[in-house]
Amino acid sequence: MDKTAFMRTTLTGTSMLFLIYFVAAQPIPQTPSSKELSSNVQTWQAEGQLLESCTCNVPCPCNFGQPPSHNSCNALFVYRLDHAHYGPIVLDGLSFGGCDGPKSAVGYLDSRATPEQQAALKQLAEAVFAKGGPWAGQRKWIIASITTEITPRLFRIQFGEAGGFQAQILIGRDGKNPIVVENNTTWPVMRFAKGKTTQMSYRDALGNQMQYQNVNANLGHFVLEGSISQKPMP
Length: 234
Hints:
Elements: H1 3-25, H2 34-37, E1 41-54, E2 75-86, E3 89-90, E4 95-100, E5 105-110, H3 115-129, E6 140-144, E7 146-150, E8 154-159, E9 163-169, E10 180-182, E11 191-203, E12 209-212, E13 216-229
Parallel strand pairs: 5-6
Antiparallel strand pairs: 1-2, 1-13, 2-3, 2-4, 4-5, 7-8, 8-9, 9-11, 10-11, 11-12, 11-13
């Protein structure tokens, strides 16, 4: 091999090595990881106690997938939040609830919430209502004081001046523990203690009015969660 041919071969080999090195050194196009793909999805979570009463006779046939005791099942209820968030907004200690009345559906938001929390609380309430309950559709929202009380033998709720209910927990044959219902067909609660109202008294500006005694009531712990879909940033 003459000197010229040798140099040409050497240069060609060197060029190939450089080309291989250059290609290998280029950044490989990255596809979004599952974490990146999910970065536009936030979550909500809610844990606490559901206090509820309706106009059905105890134990409310609706809880067993049967028709109501009367023509309809109207309800008053509060979700009392021990721990909750909607996206980044913390909602611990607040409450929301509603009246699914004979005239219309009303939603209540805790007046103790800040404006930012009230907006998140409404979104959380709608997400929870979609999980179960008498009515998951549109409702009139009202900001009001929401009072709840739970003792070993009774529980009660109050929506500002509109009213609420008080109920006694029903004790089973052992004389100590509540009668319970598991896996009901209506509410997103796995285990309810059954109760009976001593009074249900409610009236609002939308025409809902309920005056009952000795009707059904439920008390139970809930743990719920879900995703909040967000539009990707441009």
